Amino acid sequence: KVNTTLRVLTLSGNSIKTRGALALADALKGTTALTTLALHDNSIDPAGVVALADALNVNTTLDELNLMSNPAGYEGAQALAGVLKVNTSLTQLNLSFAEIGLDGIRALADGLMVNMSLTCLSLMGNEMGSAGAVALAGALKVNTVLTELRLEKNSLDAEGASALIDALGVNKSLAKMGLIFNNALPDEMFDEIKALLADPARAAAREAA
Predict the structure, then answer these.
(1) What interhelical angle do 129-140 and 158-168 show, nearest 10?
(2) Which residues fall within 8 angstroms of residue 22, CB to CB, at 6 or more apart?
(3) 3-class DSSP string for 19-86
(4) Helix or strand (DSSP H, E) at 9
């Protein structure tokens, strides 16, 4: 059966695990209605995330995917990075606390460089460190559609903050960046990033784009 009516499906905290993710992936390939899929905290491993990503390579309706607190790992992040390169419907992706690691962050940054639809990306709690922030900063210099980036609790320090500040000098689309619980991040750099994001000239540039 093919779904033609259900638009929002929330299954968070149901321990559907990889078997459930595989079933949902099959359904995603055929649905023409579903726009939101919330799978927070379901013990979905990399294989399950890869299956969901494969489905999104053909699905053209899903707008929001929440995979927070699932062990997606590098393999899952890499597969979703591939989705970012081809999918034009997904606008919100939550991979917070997904154990994707630095290589996963780098893969997603590569996808962001060509993506033209994602507006909100949440990467909280992935302990990416400065190297991850540097990779994302490189993507921000090219990406023109992302408006919100959540980087709380990622062990960011002055090096990562410096890269993000440099990127914000080029990028004009980003409006929000979550940075709390990065204890090594100097207060003055935190304040500088917030000031850059609040600059009225950025809002004017977004409206003109």
Answers:
(1) 0
(2) 47, 48, 51
(3) HHHHHHHHHHCCCCCCCEEECCCCCCCHHHHHHHHHHHCCCCCCCEEECCCCCCHHHHHHHHHHHHHH
(4) strand 8-10
**Token pair listed for 116:** 């033209």
| Ordered per-residue pLDDT tens for the chain, 209 residues | 667 789 999 999 999 999 999 999 999 998 889 999 999 999 999 999 999 999 999 999 999 999 999 999 999 999 999 999 999 999 999 999 999 999 999 999 999 999 999 999 999 999 999 999 999 999 999 999 999 999 999 999 999 999 999 999 999 999 999 999 999 999 999 999 999 999 988 888 888 77
Q: Which residues contact 37 (CB under 8 A, 6 or more apart)?
A: 9, 11, 24, 28, 62, 64, 65, 66
Asked if residues 73 and 99 have their Cβ atoms less than 8 Å apart, the reply is yes
Strand partners, 9: 37
